[in-house]
């Protein structure tokens, strides 16, 4: 799998490259800023791009803007955004742009090879990934949707994992239960929230996040 | 002759000049009448001899006009530090009238001797006139030296010129007994010197009239007209001085004599007329100004000095600046600092005890700043002093406000800097540490020794430190506020807050960072409580004002820090139970 990395901090960039190389990924380019990243994506046509939110020249949200541009301009390129911020607003902006093949992870997770490798694999399969801390922030908000209260603990766990972008199979693995049990939970909990059930994993993520988000404002 | 020195900005006309001008008027007309009435044939040979009745009448009219102008100018209050047009007019008038004394055979020899000297003053008088009308900065002593030099050269010429070499003397020598030493060489030399001196004065006057230092816009229209006529009169005088054949010695006058004499009369009469018109115009301006100042002092008209001056001068573009006490900076009536360098000629400076306290800059030409100085200085000094104090307290208030605002901005910059430093420094280093720890854990697992568990615990510690740092950095300056603005930041706040926060917002574009942060901090304060309430924040931005209204929060009032921030940004706080409203100006 061919990957492009954009990160202004040299150590972090080298660390990511090393983790991915060790895991057998092909690094086709590493950029220190958003401008070079866009050039690399256009010329190398990678399978995935890993993008830091805060990069030169203004060190605010160049990476996020570049990620949005890749999402719209290159449908075949999966985008994994790395950040120090726990803010669902950024994630929702990315999902708005393109609901599949996009992920948002806190930076400290990427040095865990298992998480990074798993994330890239799932992204290239068209799934979406949302950092658990963000899902937690959304699910534990003050005005929890009334439907959430009717969920059992296990159903709540399953919903959180749906929101993180996991497939039924992955949820089953994570919770150490049978996939059919997950499906059973799903058929019970989605109607409780008013979300139509369906096979489309990323649609479910989006629907879940939109549902949680829609309870405010 | 020295004038009574006008008081700075005073209204007192020069009494001495009025006397001298009156004297010149009487002498001119009297001598001319006496000379005309004298049965003795006129002495030719001297500078100006009326040939016909017409020329004689023209000469008398001109002398009268110059005398009247001299009185009018002497009655004009002359501003401190400017060349006196009164003195120049008196010099011209005396120079002109002395000729009548010269040609009056009945005059005593000593009087005629003085008249020779005085007659030489006319060219210097014209130079003086042009210097004064232009407002050029020339030393008084230079002009005085010129006057004295020319007068004494003429006197010397008179004393050494043998009247018997003058054909005219054959008929009138008995009355010209002023010869001391007959010296044809000295006579010729001194005669030339008088001519050259007169010509040089006239030429210098012409040059000054064309290329003076002061801009003409600071002069009244009549003053500019007088200047033009003075330049023409100077040209005619130059011709008169340089053409030797225009003055008759004996017998019928040369062909050019009478036209040139009439031209001199015409130009000088016109100049006198312009000077009188200008004096009248300026007197009217001063009168209007004085009335406006009286209304201002009686507080009958709205507005301050600037409005009163604008009405009095019919000049809406007039600007007033006040000098701050114990400072060299100038401020306008609302206390804003104005530029130090202003063209001095279109500006009237009002002084007190020799110190400038206010400055009036005229918006259009046609008025003489000197009139503003005289009238406003005298009639409204108290009002000006009051307005100056007001302007200076406004300036202080403005400085205070600006410095408060700068303090808030500096504080915000520091908060932002802290967030950046944490992000780029501490967070990156801890991130690098997690990388190293994970590698170490992998190595320890491979080796199978017991350190893996300890290292994992260490990694968890570092990760939770990262969480803490993230909160600290976010508290210092929320990144989403910096990169996306107030509304996304409030929405983010709503997602992370423990109590429900509803946002109603219509703001889309970015605002002043300190205003954004203040509104954000107020909302964050409102949700930072453990009471089971729900809070609504409504944000509107219209008419250059950002308003945020927070409802639902219980009684605790806004912290002083936020109230002070709003005040420093020029805004206001309405703090009621369950309802807080902040309004901050922002473009």
Output the keywords:
heterodimer, A: 217 residues, alpha/beta, 11 helices, 6 strands, 13% strand, B: 587 residues, alpha+beta, 5-stranded antiparallel sheet, 5-stranded mixed sheet, disordered N terminus
Structure description:
The complex is a heterodimer of chains A (217) and B (587). Chain A is built from eleven helices and six strands. The longest helix of chain A is centred in the C-terminal third of the chain and has 15 residues. Chain A has 217 residues and is an alpha/beta fold. Chain A has a six-stranded parallel β-sheet with strand order 2-1-3-4-5-6, sandwiched between helices. In chain A, helix 3 packs parallel to helix 4. Chain B is built from 18 helices and ten strands. In chain B, the strands form two sheets. Chain B has a five-stranded antiparallel β-sheet with strand order 3-2-1-5-4. Chain B has a five-stranded mixed β-sheet with strand order 6-7-8-10-9, with helices on one face. In chain B, strand 1 and strand 2 form a beta hairpin. In chain B, 40% of the residues are buried. At the A-B interface, helix 1 and helix 4 of A face helix 13, helix 14, helix 15, helix 16 and strand 6 of B.
Q: Which structural class do you get from the secondary structure elements of chain A?
A: alpha/beta
Query: Which strand order spans the largest sheet of chain A, edge to edge or round the barrel?
Result: 2-1-3-4-5-6
Strand content of chain B: 5-15%
How much of the sequence lies in strands of chain A comes to: 5-15%
Give helix and strand order of chain B, one letter per element, not per position.
HHHHHHHHHHHEEEEEHHHHHEHEEHEE
Q: What order do the helices and strands of chain A follow?
A: EHEHEHEHEHEHHHHHH
- Overall average pLDDT of chain B: 80
Radius of gyration of chain B: 42 Å
**Strands of chain A, total number:** 6
Cα(first) to Cα(last) distance of chain A is 41 Å
Q: State the separation between the terminal residues of chain B, measured CA to CA.
A: 65 Å
Helical coverage of chain A, percent range: 40-55%
Strand order of the largest sheet of chain B: 3-2-1-5-4
Q: Number of helical runs of chain A? A: 11
């Amino acid at each position: 799998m061919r990957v492009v990395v954009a990160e202004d901090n040299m150590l972090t960039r080298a660390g990511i490259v090393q983790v991915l190389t060790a895991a057998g990924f092909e690094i086709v380019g590493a950029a220190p800023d958003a401008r070079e990243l866009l050039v690399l994506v256009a010329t190398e046509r990678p399978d995935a791009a890993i993008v830091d939110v805060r990069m030169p020249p203004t060190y605010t949200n160049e990476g996020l803007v570049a990620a949005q541009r890749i999402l719209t301009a290159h449908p075949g390129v999966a985008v994994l955004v790395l950040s120090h911020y726990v803010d669902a607003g950024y994630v929702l902006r990315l999902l708005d742009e393109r609901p599949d093949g996009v992920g948002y992870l806190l930076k400290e997770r990427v040095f865990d090879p298992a998480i990074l490798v798993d994330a890239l694999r799932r992204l290239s399969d068209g799934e979406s990934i949302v950092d658990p801390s963000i899902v937690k922030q959304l699910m534990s908000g003050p005005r929890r949707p009334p439907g959430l209260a009717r969920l059992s603990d296990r159903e709540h766990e399953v919903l959180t994992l749906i929101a993180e972008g996991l497939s039924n199979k992955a949820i089953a693995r994570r919770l150490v239960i049978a996939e059919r049990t997950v499906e059973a939970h799903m058929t019970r909990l989605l109607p409780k929230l008013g979300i139509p059930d369906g096979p489309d994993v990323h649609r479910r993520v989006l629907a879940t996040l939109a549902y949680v988000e829609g309870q405010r404002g | 002759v020295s004038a009574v020195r006008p008081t700075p900005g005073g209204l007192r006309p020069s009494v001495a000049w009025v006397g001298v001008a009156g004297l010149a008027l009487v002498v001119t007309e009297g001598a001319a009448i006496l000379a005309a009435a004298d049965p003795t044939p006129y002495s030719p040979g001297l500078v100006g001899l009326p040939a016909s009745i017409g020329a004689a009448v023209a000469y008398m009219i001109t002398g009268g006009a110059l005398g009247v102008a001299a009185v009018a100018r002497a009655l004009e209050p002359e501003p401190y530090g400017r060349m006196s047009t009164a003195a120049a007019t008196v010099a011209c008038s005396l120079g002109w009238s002395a000729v009548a004394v010269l040609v009056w055979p009945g005059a005593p020899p000593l009087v005629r001797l003085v008249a020779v000297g005085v007659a030489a003053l006319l060219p210097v008088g014209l130079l003086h006139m042009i210097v004064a009308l232009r407002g050029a900065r020339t030393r008084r002593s230079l002009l005085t030296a010129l006057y004295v030099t020319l007068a004494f050269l003429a006197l010397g010429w008179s004393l050494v010129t043998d009247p018997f070499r003058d054909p005219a003397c054959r008929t009138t020598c008995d009355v010209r007994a002023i010869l001391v030493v007959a010296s044809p060489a000295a006579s010729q030399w001194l005669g030339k010197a008088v001519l050259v001196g007169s010509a040089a004065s006239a030429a210098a006057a012409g040059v000054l009239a064309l290329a003076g230092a002061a801009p003409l816009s600071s002069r009244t229209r009549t003053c500019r007209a007088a200047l033009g006529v003075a330049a023409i009169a100077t040209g005619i005088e130059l011709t008169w001085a340089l053409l030797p054949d225009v003055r008759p010695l004996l017998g019928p006058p040369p062909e050019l004599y009478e036209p040139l004499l009439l031209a001199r009369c015409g130009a000088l009469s016109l100049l006198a007329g312009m000077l009188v018109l200008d004096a009248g115009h300026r007197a009217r301006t001063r009168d209007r100004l004085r009335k406006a100042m009286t209304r201002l002092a009686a507080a009958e008209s709205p507005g301050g000095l600037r409005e009163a001056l604008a009405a009095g001068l019919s000049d809406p573009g007039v600007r007033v600046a006040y000098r701050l006490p114990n400072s060299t900076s100038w401020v306008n009536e609302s206390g804003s600092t104005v530029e130090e360098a202003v063209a001095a000629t279109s500006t009237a400076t009002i002084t007190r005890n020799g110190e400038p306290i206010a400055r009036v800059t005229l918006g259009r030409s046609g008025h003489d700043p000197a009139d503003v100085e005289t009238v406003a200085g005298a009639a409204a000094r108290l009002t000006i002093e009051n307005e100056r104090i007001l302007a200076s307290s406004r300036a202080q208030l403005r400085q205070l406000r600006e410095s408060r605002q700068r303090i808030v901005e500096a504080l915000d910059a520091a908060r932002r800097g802290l967030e950046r430093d944490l992000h780029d420094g501490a967070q990156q280093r801890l991130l690098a540490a997690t990388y190293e720890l994970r590698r170490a854990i992998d190595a320890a697992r491979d080796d199978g020794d017991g350190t893996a568990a300890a290292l994992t615990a260490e990694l968890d510690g570092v990760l939770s430190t990262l969480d803490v740092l993230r909160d600290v950095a976010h508290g210092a300056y929320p990144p989403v506020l910096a990169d996306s603005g107030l509304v996304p930041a409030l929405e983010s706040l709503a997602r992370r807050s423990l109590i429900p926060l509803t946002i109603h917002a219509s703001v889309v574009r970015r605002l002043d960072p300190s205003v954004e942060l203040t509104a954000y901090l107020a909302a964050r304060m409102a949700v930072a409580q453990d009471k089971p309430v729900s809070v609504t924040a409504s944000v509107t931005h219209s008419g250059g004002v950002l308003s945020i209204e927070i409802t639902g929060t219980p009684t605790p009032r806004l912290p002083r820090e936020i109230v002070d921030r709003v005040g420093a940004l020029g805004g206001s706080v309405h703090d009621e139970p369950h309802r807080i409203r902040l309004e901050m100006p922002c473009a």
